[in-house]
Amino acid sequence: QVRLVESGGGSVQAGASLxxxxxxxxxxxxxxxxxxxxxxxxxxxxxxxxxxxxxxxTHYGDSVKGRFTISTDNANNTQYLDMNNLKPEDTAVYxxxxxxxxxxxxxxxxYRYWGQGTQVTVSS
Length: 124
Known about the structure:
Number of helices: 0
Helix content: under 10%
Order of helices and strands: EEEEEEEEEEE
Distance between the termini: 40 Å
Shape: globular
Radius of gyration: 13 Å
Largest sheet: 7 strands, mixed
């Protein structure tokens, strides 16, 4: 089974950029649909971005379109979330996820494997 470990979270000012990494081990990420979700304090988990097994299709939540980019580095078996023009409302714990499916999902219940989460705090 694949194991996922996020890193790269931190505290930044509004307008800054940040890259989150999700290192996978156990299996190659190329056989998984991959996603990013976030959860703000007191709120439910929100879909952020997803990419199909080989990167042919991507999808983003409305709140991050044009600012965030999901990508993968197959050589390092790592997925990334590049976040630009961060806003205070982006503050949340960010989770990477994966599922052995050829179909891109936005629903949290569709993802079988999850990382531990990394905190992103954006101040104004």
